[in-house]
């Protein structure tokens, strides 16, 4: 594929507002006027400080084609996924008379697309948002499926809504400034898509370890597109997570508990990496997954430089956090597990003892 080619991956939900395109490539901002249409006058660009200059470039481009622009600079990473940050954005929208024909653009990683998406979902009960994800993780996952959310004192992503974006513009060039560790944590969600659906992703990662640190490589581009296709396909079928969408939560029950327990000092992708090893060990302990898949999970995460173990003295706190997972039903914990690669299913765990035994498998000494 030539570097300048733009790839379009469509999400095709059952309702009109659940249909949108994810574009991957370079120089995509020119698409914005067509996506928003002629009635849009005002655009709020939400970004963290680290993306200030990118946000300014986006606003400059928008002004040139006649939009009135405003910006909301928000705290970095998980600090941004807070109700007070949403309230600050609502204030900017209110003070500048944003109407239902106006729009928001998010510029940043998954934390920004999550909170900006939540602001868009709630302002006037819903206005349009275009995501410009600037991390690998946000390109392949956070910006794509219309899940928006903020954290509360009790847990991760406990408040949010489903609100599809008008479009997602994955400008590959924005990854040039992304620190290497952030690129690699994004690989956790890419590998997740490999385990739940597209085996070729796992082969590509294993065969090209040296390319994984080069955000502009053809391998990263192919991984981005394959992971987006996995997510777009699932979201098209089950936008509001009534069934198959739960598979996108592979590795997240334990992963979110780590993030919460670490007060968000661990990156999401790093926590999901340990969570995938936990889920693989759980399925193996239940006698449903071959040990070779557990070993492959550990080897892939190791290859990418992602963690595969966690502190061994935190069980009761982790279990308490996992009870608040959205897949729980009453006292019943539910995990996404694999019967094999690309064969995910839900496992209901009525008894904590198998979970504790699994915890011992991933506990660091
Ligand atoms: N809604 C969903 O479906 C979904 C899916 C996956 C993850 N998430 C959420 O996404 C968040 C994790 O996203 P993330 O890993 O992108 O982390 P992040 O948004 O915290 O960004 C990581 C860091 O990279 C910096 N950064 C971002 N882009 C940059 C760039 N181009 N150059 C330099 N620095 C840059 C950010 O400022 C931040 O410090 C979590 O909150 C997770 O819950 C949501
Ligand atoms: O899109 C989904 O659905 C996912 O589960 C994708 C996950 O990677 C993502 O981290 C999501 O935010 C987790 O959602 P939650 O419902 O467990 O909060
Ligand atoms: Zn995730």
Automatic annotation (TrEMBL):
Localisation per UniProt entry: Cytoplasm
Class of enzymatic activity (EC top level): lyase
UniProt lineage: Bacteria, Bacillati, Actinomycetota, Actinomycetes, Micrococcales
Pathway connected to this protein: Metabolic intermediate biosynthesis; chorismate biosynthesis; chorismate from D-erythrose 4-phosphate and phosphoenolpyruvate: step 2/7
Top-level taxon: Bacteria
3-dehydroquinate synthase C-terminal domain mapped to chain residues: 186-328
Protein name per its UniProtKB record: 3-dehydroquinate synthase
Residue numbers binding NAD(+): 76-81, 110-114, 134-135, 147, 156, 174-177
Catalytic activity, as annotated: 7-phospho-2-dehydro-3-deoxy-D-arabino-heptonate = 3-dehydroquinate + phosphate
Transmembrane domains' residue ranges: none
GO biological process assignments: amino acid biosynthetic process; aromatic amino acid family biosynthetic process; chorismate biosynthetic process
Cofactor: Co(2+); Zn(2+); NAD(+)
Origin species: Rothia terrae
GO CC, any one term: cytoplasm
Cofactor: how and how many bound: Binds 1 divalent metal cation per subunit. Can use either Co(2+) or Zn(2+).
Keyword Cytoplasm applies: yes
Function: Catalyzes the conversion of 3-deoxy-D-arabino-heptulosonate 7-phosphate (DAHP) to dehydroquinate (DHQ).
UniProt EC number: 4.2.3.4
Positions with a binding annotation for Zn(2+): 189, 252, 268
Main location class: cytoplasm
